[in-house]
Automatic annotation (TrEMBL):
Organism the protein comes from: Jiangella anatolica
Record's keyword annotation contains NADP: no
Source organism, top-level taxon: Bacteria
DNA-binding region range list: 39-58
Name of the featured protein: TetR family transcriptional regulator
Domain HTH tetR-type: start-end pairs: 16-76
Gene3D superfamilies for the chain: Tetracycline Repressor, domain 2 (1.10.357.10)
Keyword Transport recorded: no
Amino acid sequence: MTELVPRREGRKRNAATTSERIRRTALELFSTQGYEATGIRELADRVGMTTASLYHYVGTKAELLTDIMRDAQARLLAAAQGALAGIDDPAARIVRLVHIHVLAHAIFQLEARTVDTELRVLDPSALQEILDARDEYEQLWREAIVRGCDDGVFTVPDASTARLAIMTMSTGVAHWYKPNRGASPAELAVNFSDLALALLRATDAAGRTVDTAALALGDPAELIPLLGIAPPASTADAAR
């Protein structure tokens, strides 16, 4: 009986690996040629299995897309909540939100592109689920900006427009960022948080302009584990 346990665990690991391989391949296809242009047979051929086997691992194509979006949104929300834990200052909260958003869109580019462009193909119930999850995430941004405006930390004519501008520019990273060329995701995150603070006209109690460095929040790379992956080697080495 005890010999069956390792075998079961091995089968579970193999199934998880296969499902992840299918997801990665699906994301490559969805993000480059679109969900509707990607056939289930094409996806099965790419991963080297029959369509029947594909359905066994990930269900229908629509279910696969919904699962990808659900997991992406859940990861982003959990990471943002973790990054904001213990931080009360509105400027610091916006910086942390920008850092998480930019890191996620630079690291999970194919996933981010798919989530951004394929919402329209979801069925109504799945669409509502994803929109509700997205609204919960965006509420963190709304609260931080409104609080900053109320406290006199930010000076913008319209908090909603400011939020949309910052989130849109940060989301765009997924569409143009080239890994291993130029700035790292963490460096990019700092650049974008400085832009966000400038757009919000952030100031301290003395009326001085606030930038990311002044808030002393540390290296954004230290937030990467919140997204469920290991930090870069340099960050891990520095932590030891």
